[in-house]
Design goal:
- The longest helix has 17 residues, at 169-185.
- The two termini are 30 Å apart.
- The protein contains seven helices and nine strands, in the order E-E-E-H-E-E-H-E-H-H-H-E-H-E-E-H.
- It has one domain (3-216): 3-Layer(aba) Sandwich (Rossmann fold).
- The protein is α/β, with parallel strands linked by helices and 217 residues long.
- Helix 5 packs parallel to helix 6 (169-185).
- Bound molecules: adenosine-5'-diphosphate and magnesium ion.
- Adenosine-5'-diphosphate is lined by residues 12, 17, 35, 37-43.
Length: 217
């Protein structure tokens, strides 16, 4: 199992947002995490990434229970197994795109894989921008670079929080196509948190958070 959550409890202001929550995601089974605003999608993503720590329960990423680890232990699991597609491009401004990707690999694994970088940039249609600094990229290029940055460490789990919510129809479709295609090409599994109904038909597997949990709180 790629991701397994068991009996999760997480409180906000001492009230449970999650209580007795379970979830499992198999390798290669892309999932959509849906639910109304405030239902806890971003919180759950942050728990899975080890940026928050639960009151109770297990959160196993690739078999490692990150809930039982220290902050540095959680950072290590995140760096090694999870790729996060951020809305805004988080790159070092003084370095060009390919140098940023090399640095990301070195920080994640201590080794570099230049051929993976070449392949990703080509796959994402931004090979000609390898020497561009972050501020020199267009918005569309930056979106593609954010996907490259997330995949450059060969993560098993690729996570994006509301990747399309700010985009028009055409751009939303393009970003989703790239995310789905690249996830398949590079052997990752996609987990997308969204309240964007346009994505529903693209995902047979859905995790639904209800405001049930909010009312219970
Ligand atoms: P979603 O992503 O589904 O919109 P969130 O995970 O952002 O939901 O929020 C879930 C609930 O937790 C909301 O009621 C929100 O107000 C609350 N919440 C989230 N983060 C914090 C925080 N840092 N401090 C207080 N309340 C928070
Ligand atoms: Mg959110």
């Amino acid at each position: 199992m790629l991701l397994e959550i068991e009996n999760l409890q997480y409180n906000i202001n001492e009230k449970p947002l999650f209580s007795g929550f379970n979830l499992s995601i198999e390798e290669q089974k892309n999932h959509l995490l849906v639910g109304p605003s405030g239902s806890g999608k971003t919180t759950l993503i942050n728990l899975i990434c080890g940026l928050l720590s639960p009151e109770k329960g297990a959160i196993r990423v690739a078999g490692h229970d990150i809930a039982a680890l220290s902050e540095s232990g959680r950072d290590k699991i995140r760096r090694e197994h999870i790729g996060i597609v951020f809305q805004t491009l988080r790159l070092v401004s003084a370095l060009d795109l390919s140098a940023n990707l090399l640095l990301a690999q070195r920080l994640s694994r201590g080794t570099i894989d230049a051929s993976l970088i070449t392949s990703l940039l080509k796959r994402l249609g931004i090979a000609h921008r390898a020497k561009a600094k972050p501020h020199q990229m267009s918005q569309g290029e930056a979106q593609r670079a954010a996907i490259a940055r997330a995949l450059v460490t060969r993560p098993r789990l690729l996570i994006a929080d509301e990747p399309t919510s700010a985009l028009d129809e055409t751009n939303a479709r393009q970003v989703m196509d790239l995310l789905l295609e690249c996830t398949a090409d590079y052997g990752a599994t996609l987990l997308i948190a969204t309240h964007d109904d346009r994505l529903t038909p693209l995902f047979p597997n859905r995790i639904v958070l209800t405001d049930h949990m909010l009312k219970a709180a």
